[in-house]
Every structure is written in structure tokens, then in C-alpha cells.
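testing teh design pipeline on a random one, pls ignore if ur not involved
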């Protein structure tokens, strides 16, 4: 059975396939809805927990739909359906950000099992990932995204971002940052912290002199601001 409230969007132009998938998902406890084309899918996907995406759509290529979703949401699982046996399609699909794919025709039992696996995976991801406005940090995979774009961070920048975002809205003392991110017996200068903060602010798209996401609290420390 699906977990209560888990929402699945089925993007499929074929009436019969779409109806049978939606029916099966509903029977297994999911909340399933259908989008019949790519444009509808892009306007509908936001509240869903998983997207089942047919590659061959009437208005746009499923790969393009996948990329467009990925540009906004780096975590939402997308399972592609393809009628083509071509390995190359699979590679393109996975490159575009799909997490799994199934070649038609497939059995419902396998379909449901694949979806359950992906939903479990994101359950454990979202439990540990941190989201503050348009910044998403996933400590498990050591990846972070800003506005849907993956950030390229050095190890200490990443650790610093994890600490600041995990306590967003709260002041964190410089000493605590130094001991948690650098060394538990830190007695030296905190210049290295300033350098890393400046770099992190730059990577968050901030210009010097502009209002920062990371507020400096004089004599105290820093606070990552809530959106
Ligand atoms: Ca199709």
C-alpha cells in the first residue's frame, strides 16, 4: 500500500495506459492524477511526491519535460516510461534527471515496486535534507542546490552551509562554528571563517554590499536568514 497522502502524477498521453495506471495507484492507496501532455505536466507537478513520465508526448519530448522539472526541483523522483527499447534513450533520460525508467509493456506489480523503492529513497532523503527558501542541502550525499542549480562547494564551505542552514533563523556563535566546522580545539584566528563566508555568499549569488542571506551579528556570530 502507498503511504497516506503520497501524490503521484502520471504524465501519459495514451488514454488506456493512463487510466489503468491511475486506477492501480488509487487502488493501492496513492493519490494519483494524470497529465495528458508536457505543458500540463509542467503546470501541475509541484505538489506531487513522484512523477511517472512518458517519453513520447504529443506536445514536447519527455526528456525536455524531465529537464524542466529538474531545473526547479532537484529531488522529486521522476520515473520514465518508454516504448522504445533503445539504450540511448535510457541514457538520455537518466542524464536529464530521471531516477528510473521502465520499458513498455510492463506489469503492474513491477511498476508499483519501482515506485515504492523511489518513494522510500526520497523519504529518507527529505528526512535528512535541509531546505531554506531556494537553498537545499543534502548532508547524506554532500550536495547542495541554489535555485535548482547544484552548488560547487569546497568541503569546509559545505560543512559551514550545513551548520548555518540546519539552524536557519537562529544566531550561531563564531566559536561554535570554528569548533564544529574546523577543529574542536580551535584557538587561532577566525580569518579563515571570514574567507569561507565570503566565498559562500558569492556562491549564493550575492554581491558585496548587498543584503546577505547570512547576517553578521557583531560580536556574536552569524545567522542564516529564513526566507
Ligand atoms: Ca506516449
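output:
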Amino acid at each position: 500500500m502507498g503511504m497516506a497522502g503520497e501524490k503521484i502524477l502520471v504524465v501519459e498521453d495514451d488514454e488506456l495506459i493512463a487510466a489503468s495506471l491511475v486506477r492501480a495507484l488509487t487502488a493501492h492507496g496513492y493519490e494519483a492524477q494524470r497529465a495528458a501532455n508536457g505543458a500540463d505536466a509542467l503546470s501541475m507537478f509541484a505538489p506531487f511526491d513522484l512523477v511517472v513520465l512518458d517519453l513520447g508526448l504529443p506536445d514536447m519530448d519527455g526528456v525536455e519535460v524531465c529537464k524542466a522539472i529538474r531545473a526547479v526541483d532537484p529531488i522529486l523522483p521522476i520515473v520514465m516510461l518508454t516504448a522504445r527499447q533503445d539504450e540511448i534513450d535510457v541514457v538520455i533520460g537518466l542524464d536529464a534527471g530521471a531516477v528510473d525508467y521502465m520499458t513498455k509493456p510492463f506489469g503492474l506489480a513491477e511498476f508499483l515496486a519501482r515506485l515504492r523503492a523511489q518513494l522510500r529513497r526520497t523519504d529518507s532523503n527529505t528526512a535528512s535534507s535541509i531546505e531554506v527558501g531556494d537553498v537545499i542541502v543534502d548532508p547524506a550525499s554532500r550536495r547542495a542546490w541554489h535555485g535548482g542549480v547544484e552548488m560547487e562547494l569546497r568541503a569546509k564551505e559545505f560543512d559551514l552551509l550545513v551548520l548555518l542552514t540546519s539552524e536557519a533563523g537562529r544566531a550561531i556563535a563564531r566559536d561554535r562554528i570554528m569548533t564544529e566546522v574546523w577543529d574542536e580545539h580551535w584557538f587561532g584566528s577566525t580569518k579563515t571563517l571570514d574567507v569561507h563566508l565570503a566565498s559562500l555568499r558569492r556562491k549564493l549569488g550575492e554581491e558585496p554590499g548587498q543584503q546577505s542571506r547570512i547576517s553578521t551579528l557583531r560580536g556574536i556570530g552569524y545567522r542564516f536568514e529564513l526566507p
